[in-house]
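To illustrate the input format used throughout this study, we show a single complete record. The first block contains the structure-token representation of the backbone; no residue identities are included at this stage. The design step must infer an amino acid for every position from geometry alone.
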């Protein structure tokens, strides 16, 4: 939704779209390639082995992005600034909400979020600060490759971290409430 809104993709998406525009590879392919690079970078930053099972996550995401962009929404264009902003904002909330849920599983997190956690631990900052830093790094890279940057990019850059920070503890509380209840009875 954030790509299709047409008012600037998120920094990582802008990077992937920009790279897809100047190479023969698709946006989904670049999600996979960048993900592989981030797996290596995350291992270096955390001084640990690469999280190889994250490959499964990025391959799945890469192919799903291509499926949605190429097959499902191939010719979909939104018109009118208000509709574009609405689609973008809904997309941002869905991404933050979804990320806060899937991060609870602590299994095969996408390399972008692994990068966020690595920076959080390395820099000793809050999750939203680390996420904003990773988004700014991607934004600079997207600018270099000529990705679709606009007001939407800035909104995603500065809203996604705080929204994940907002949703994360609430989802953790909801997801783990049953575990806490079971422990009381054991």
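Output of the design step:
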């Amino acid at each position: 939704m954030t790509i299709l809104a047409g008012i600037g993709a998120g920094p990582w998406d802008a990077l992937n779209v920009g790279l897809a525009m100047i190479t023969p590879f698709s946006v989904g392919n670049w999600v996979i390639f960048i993900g592989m690079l981030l797996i290596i970078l995350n291992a270096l930053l955390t001084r640990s082995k690469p999280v190889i099972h994250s490959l499964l996550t990025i391959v799945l995401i890469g192919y799903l992005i291509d499926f949605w962009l190429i097959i499902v929404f191939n010719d979909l264009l939104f018109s009118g600034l208000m509709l574009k902003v609405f689609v973008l904002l809904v997309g941002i909330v869905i991404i933050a909400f979804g990320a806060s849920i899937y991060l609870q599983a602590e299994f095969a997190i996408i390399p972008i979020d692994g990068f966020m956690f690595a920076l959080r631990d390395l820099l000793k900052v809050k999750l939203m600060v680390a996420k904003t830093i990773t988004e700014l790094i991607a934004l600079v890279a997207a600018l270099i490759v000529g990705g679709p940057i606009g007001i939407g990019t800035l909104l995603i850059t500065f809203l996604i971290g705080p929204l994940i920070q907002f949703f994360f503890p609430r989802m953790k509380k909801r997801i783990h409430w049953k575990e806490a209840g079971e422990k009381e009875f054991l």
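Structural context for interpreting the output: The CA atoms of residues 92 and 159 lie 8 Å apart. The chain has one domain: 11-185.
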